[in-house]
Amino acid sequence: MEKQTKIKVRNLDLFYGANHALKNVNMDIKEKSVTAFIGPSGCGKSTFLKTLNRMNDLVDSVKIDGLVELDNENIYGEDVDTTLLRKKIGMVFQQPNPFPMSIYDNIAYGPRVHGIKDKNKLDRIVEESLRGAAIFDEVKDRLKKSALGLSGGQQQRICIARALAVQPDVLLMDEPTSALDPISTAKIEELMDELKKKYTVVVVTHNMQQAVRVSDETAFFLVGEMVEFNRTKDLFAYPKDKRTEDYITGRFG
Ligand SMILES: Nc1ncnc2c1ncn2[C@@H]1O[C@H](COP(=O)(O)OP(=O)(O)OP(=O)(O)O)[C@@H](O)[C@H]1O
Ligand SMILES: [Mg+2]
């Protein structure tokens, strides 16, 4: 069965002051799949990722034109509540950034903000989220200990669990493994395969092998332009654009 479009982007332009950082980007991101963004440093991957949950709203000089829809609704509409939007579209960053509090409180933080107080309910959410991020067994005996005492790879999975705890639909990940060792990286890559059964996952990566391993579709960006978007295996096997071919064969970037 053909997967539905989860996020639809049309004619998206973004300016940081005079810097035209995204140029007429169009994309359909499919539900319950992994979409990868690749391209050289500064090409706009993070900027584009952040337009998908309005994180760029926090930047003063930013100006955005065009359409971004989640489930056919314009996320830049006037009555959109950005807190709720970011509950639906969670984000994980390059550097693991757990809060300086216990593992339990890290995961319970979002649900508490959204009004959940019942202890049993929170216990259940914490366990399910940690299981969903493939970290429960490693931390179940130290839930009350500080999350900062975990390894980088464990911290990153705590951050994924924290994102899952508010029941998002979409998970945005900006180079989630670039600060991690190979074993932790492999764990997160395996996890992405599980996550896409329930969530729509969008991942920025500098590692083309990673894009090949984890993603169903890949978009290649170059200086603010989305050059090519295709099924991952086709994009890497039969790039249509010369610039894509040059990049994936390592001629630049
Ligand atoms: N907050 C900001 N204010 C002004 N300009 C910005 C801001 N963030 C990014 N830019 C500029 O926008 C362009 C795209 O940057 P972006 O961070 O999206 O690239 P990237 O593809 O994620 O790069 P990298 O691979 O190095 O993370 C760059 O020219 C960058 O300098
Ligand atoms: Mg970036």
What does this protein look like?
This protein is of the alpha/beta class and 253 residues long. The chain has one domain: P-loop containing nucleotide triphosphate hydrolases (Rossmann fold, 3-Layer(aba) Sandwich), CATH 3.40.50.300. It is 37% helix and 26% strand. It contains ten helices and ten strands. The protein has a six-stranded mixed beta sheet, with helices on both faces. Strands 2-1-4-5 form a four-stranded antiparallel beta sheet, with helices on one face. α3 packs across α4. The protein is globular, with a radius of gyration of 18 Å.
CATH class: Alpha Beta
Number of domains: 1
Estimated structural class: alpha/beta
Shape, per Cα inertia axes: globular
Task: Walk me through the topology.
Blueprint: E1 5-16, E2 19-30, E3 34-38, H1 45-51, E4 62-70, E5 73-74, H2 82-88, E6 89-92, H3 103-113, H4 119-132, H5 136-139, H6 152-164, E7 170-174, H7 182-198, E8 200-204, H8 208-214, E9 217-222, E10 225-231, H9 232-237, H10 242-248
Parallel strand pairs: 3-8, 3-9, 6-7, 7-8
Antiparallel strand pairs: 1-2, 1-4, 4-5, 9-10
Helix pairs in contact: 3-4, 3-6, 4-6, 6-7
Comma- or semicolon-separated keywords:
253 residues; alpha/beta; Rossmann fold; four-stranded antiparallel sheet; 10 strands; 26% strand; globular; binds adenosine-5'-triphosphate; binds magnesium ion
